[in-house]
Design goal:
This protein is α+β, with helices and mostly antiparallel strands and about 100 residues long. It is about 45% helix and about 25% strand. It has helices at about 15-30, 45-60, 85-95; strands at about 1-10, 35, 40-45, 65-75. Helix 1 (about 15-30) packs antiparallel against helix 2. The longest helix has 16 residues, at about 45-60. The radius of gyration is 15 Å and the shape is globular. It comes from Streptomyces exfoliatus (Streptomyces hydrogenans). It holds the Pfam family Thiamine_BP. InterPro entries: MTH1187/YkoF-like, Thiamine_BP, UPF0045_domain. Belongs to the UPF0045 family.
Length: about 100
């Protein structure tokens, strides 16, 4: 499964980068395949392990912010691995054709 999620602290002002970094740090330390871009962090693994990482990432931000917004999108597709890479490679292959 791949989960793309965004954790946003609320009530801390406009500069939220250091709070978001706390969440991304949790993801990177998890050891699961992941990728961060300007809008979302994507993580790949089994349901329980991915959701545990998302929960801990939210908790890391929640520890410093009075309110947290979470946006989450999941691709639940049993048996597929390396989707973070293979899905992008497929699109790139079509773009190159």
């Amino acid at each position: 499964m791949i989960v793309a999620f965004s954790v946003t602290p609320l009530g801390v002002g406009e500069e939220v980068g250091e709070y978001v970094a706390d969440a991304v740090r949790v993801v990177r330390e998890s050891g699961l395949p992941n990728r961060t871009d300007a809008m979302f962090t994507s993580i790949e693994g089994e349901w329980d392990e991915v959701m545990d990482v998302v929960k801990r990432a939210v908790a890391a931000v929640e520890a410093r912010a009075p309110r947290v917004s979470l946006v989450l999108k999941a691709d639940v597709r049993p048996g597929v691995t390396d989707g973070l890479t293979s899905k992008v490679e497929t699109v790139e292959r079509h773009l190159g054709a």
